[in-house]
Design a protein that fits this description.
- The chain crosses the membrane at residues 56-74.
- Keywords: Membrane, Transmembrane, Transmembrane helix.
- The structure is a single chain.
- The chain is an all-alpha fold and 112 residues long.
- The protein has one domain (3-110).
- It is 84% helix and 0% strand.
- The chain has five helices and no strands.
- The longest helix is centred in the first third of the chain and has 22 residues, at 3-24.
- The mean pLDDT is 94.
Length: 112
């Protein structure tokens, strides 16, 4: 699977996770993260498509709700782990220029 498809599915999942967390924990930082992740997903939709986007989104939406119900400590650990892995993915698969550099910077801002 190519990098754009993996990034597309990752951002679909990140959007679902962010929405799930925001449904439970109504804070500005989670709303902002949701908006960023949705923008990243749309960016990669321009580069690639997959029939797995929606299933990944909904699976991680449910996972995000479950994580948020466990509390802020669990939410923080899960979000920080996943954001670190997303940044690692971008650094290893893309040149940091233009839009990808902006995406990486926004991912860094999501670490709580």
């Amino acid at each position: 699977m190519d990098s754009d498809k993996l990034a597309l599915l990752g951002e679909a999942g990140a959007t679902g996770l962010a929405r799930g967390i925001y449904i439970v924990i109504r804070e500005e930082k989670f709303r902002h993260a949701l908006e960023d992740e949705l923008a990243h997903w749309r960016y990669f939709q321009k580069r690639s498509k997959s029939i797995l986007e929606r299933p990944v989104y909904f699976a991680l939406l449910l996972f995000g709700i479950a994580v948020a119900l466990f509390g802020r400590g669990v939410t923080r650990r899960v979000v920080n782990y996943l954001e670190a892995k997303a940044i690692e993915f971008y650094l290893s698969h893309y040149d940091l220029n233009g839009d990808i550099k902006m995406i990486v910077e926004q991912e860094k801002d999501h670490i709580i």
